[in-house]
Design a protein that fits this description.
Chain lengths: ~290, ~120
């Protein structure tokens, strides 16, 4: 399988006195789609540019398939990092840039690139600096997907794309992942739109890891409890509240942590309604609290 | 219909009910291939893990079975099992509530039966 694992050991990144990342330790399994979620300035791009070896951490180690990634050309070839690049000065045509990318990406699939160009209706004969923001992003995505790099990183790669184009992007990730498994890292704050893509979710806030777990266990990470205000308060008294809302005598509390079977039965006998908490809600409240 | 904004019912249950419905109303017959996890993910934009959870339950209960490398199929006797399960649930989900509400409103048994008959007649 052409997919690479990633490991970070106590990674810290400082810009003068500012700590962009603080002691981040993380393992990303090969062949999975990882969602990296964080607010603006949380450290998403810092983290990804370290994994892509665009810069060196202040301390700590970063490994792709077990080998240090920094100044390691063999590993860097395996990593495609797609980010919001500045194309103001880029007068070459999109076609030329894509052809160029195919030369330094050993797994690049030109036929697939052509298909994607058609799907995104990318005007390949226009100079890149004359393309709209959304089309520049589409071009980046074409290069990123067609590279078929064992580790493919999309750092908010959808910027400026309209909803139909984003939908094509998401569908192509799922489709191509099925046929050519690799490791994806997708950073985003469009959580509700993208959460169905993720096998694993990492949330960072202020340079620190807030949550790191498989999507399937996330569902059990929280719950909403709704019912008569006094019952809800008593039931959730010793739980961690993420958020609460009240309308007349009805109260709804979002709690963090697992509700086991006996708790659920207790809720049922009290006539309380237990609902799931979305990743979007978890993200909002987990990162709001820290601020 | 799967509805991610229906916050009261977990999505994996909605997924399994969707497939159950198709079996019960003969859209999916015994031996037919069920939609794959990937198709469901793409269609409903629901996470792979969630879809798998719903499907796995149906496999564990013998409603669906896996053919390695080919896909998921409707098991023999699946419809019968589901209909039995649902008849049991019918009492909890519909009859109990109906009887309780009727009592509150002072509707007699005879009236209930009349109401059921006239509703059925209207639909037919």
């Amino acid at each position: 399988m052409m997919a690479a694992s990633v490991q970070l050991n106590d990674v810290t990144l400082k810009f003068k006195k500012f700590e962009a990342l603080k002691d981040v330790s993380l393992t990303l399994e090969a062949g999975k789609i990882h969602g990296l979620i964080g607010r603006n300035g949380a450290g998403k791009t810092s983290l990804l540019s370290l994994i892509a070896a665009f810069r060196e951490p202040t301390s700590g180690g970063i490994f792709v398939d077990g080998s240090p990634v920094f100044e390691n050309p063999e590993k860097m070839e395996q990593v495609a990092f797609v980010y919001d690049k500045d194309y103001k000065e880029e007068t070459e045509k999109a076609k030329k840039l894509i052809a160029l990318a195919s030369h330094y990406r050993p797994h690049f699939d030109m036929d697939y690139a052509e298909q994607l160009i058609k799907r995104f209706k990318l005007p390949v004969n226009k100079p890149v600096n004359k393309l709209s923001k959304g089309m520049q992003s589409a071009m980046n995505v074409v290069m990123g997907l067609a590279s078929r790099a064992p580790l493919t990183i999309f750092d908010e790669a959808y910027l400026g794309m309209d909803a139909p184009a984003r939908e094509i992007f998401y569908k192509e990730i799922l489709k191509d992942q099925e046929e050519h498994p690799r490791t994806f890292i997708l950073s985003t704050h469009l959580v509700s739109e993208m959460d169905y893509l993720f096998d694993h979710v990492v949330i960072i806030d202020q340079g620190q890891l807030v949550l790191n777990e498989p999507y399937e266990t996330l569902e059990a990470r929280g719950a909403s409890v709704t019912g008569a205000a006094s019952d809800v308060e008593a039931f959730t008294a010793d739980m961690k509240h993420l958020n609460e809302q009240q309308l007349g005598g009805t109260k709804s509390v979002m709690v963090y942590g697992e509700l086991d079977e006996s708790k659920r039965r207790e809720a049922q006998t009290l006539g309380l309604e237990i609902g799931p908490v979305s990743l979007q809600d978890l993200f909002i409240y987990l990162t709001e609290e820290a601020n | 219909m799967v509805n991610p904004s229906d916050s009261t019912k977990p999505l994996f249950l909605q997924i399994r009910e969707l497939i159950e419905d198709q079996i019960v109303n003969d859209q999916l017959k015994e031996g037919d291939q069920a939609p794959s996890t990937n198709q469901l993910v793409n269609f409903y934009k629901i996470n792979h893990a969630t879809v798998s959870k719903g499907i796995t339950q149906l496999v564990d209960e013998g409603i669906l079975f896996k053919k390695r490398g080919i896909g998921m199929f409707v098991a023999e006797g699946a419809k019968k099992t589901l209909v039995q399960q649902r008849k049991k649930a019918f009492v909890d989900n519909y009859v109990t509530g109906l009887v309780q509400e009727a009592e509150k409103l002072g509707i007699t048994e005879q009236e209930i039966i009349e109401l059921i008959k006239s509703t059925k007649g209207r639909d037919a």
